[in-house]
């Protein structure tokens, strides 16, 4: 009796494989959606890191010292 070779894990017919990676347009959409989500998350985190590192040196932090209020006019 000859046994069939085991199917590699990558070739498994998982839900992810069937739902996304079988159709090229669906896979392309998933890649673009993932890249967009990663970009938004990365930008948000890096803006928070930048703001924390430069606290007190940005215009939004020192505007009240230099900007005239509307009541002074």
Helical residue percent?
55-70%
Annotation field: number of helices: 3
Q: Per DSSP, what share of the residues sits in E-state strands of 2 or more residues? A: under 5%
Give the integer mean of the pLDDT values: 84
Radius of gyration: 26 Å
Distance between the termini: 96 Å
Number of strands: 0
Secondary-structure-derived class = mainly alpha
Q: Which series of helices and strands comes N to C?
A: HHH
Largest sheet: none
pLDDT < 50 stretches: none
Q: What is the approximate shape? A: elongated
Structural features, described:
- The protein has 3 helices and no strands.
- It is mainly α.
- The termini are far apart.
- The chain is elongated, with a radius of gyration of 26 Å.
- The mean pLDDT is 84.
- The longest helix has 30 residues.
Set down the secondary structure blueprint.
Elements: H1 15-21, H2 24-53, H3 59-66
Protein name: Complex III subunit 9
Subcellular location: Mitochondrion inner membrane
InterPro entries: QCR9, QCR9_sf
Looking at this protein, list some descriptive labels.
single chain; 73 residues; mainly alpha; 3 helices; 62% helix; elongated; mitochondrion; transmembrane helix; transport; QCR9_sf
Offer a concise description of the structure.
This protein is mainly α and 73 residues long. 62% of the residues lie in helices and 0% in strands.
């Amino acid at each position: 009796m000859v046994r069939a070779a085991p199917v590699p894990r990558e070739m498994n017919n998982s839900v992810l494989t069937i739902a996304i990676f079988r159709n090229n347009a669906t896979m392309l959409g998933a890649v673009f959606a993932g890249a967009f989500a990663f970009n938004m998350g990365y930008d948000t985190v890096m803006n928070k890191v930048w703001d924390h590192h430069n606290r007190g040196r940005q215009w939004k932090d020192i505007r009240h010292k230099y900007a005239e209020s509307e009541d002074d006019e």
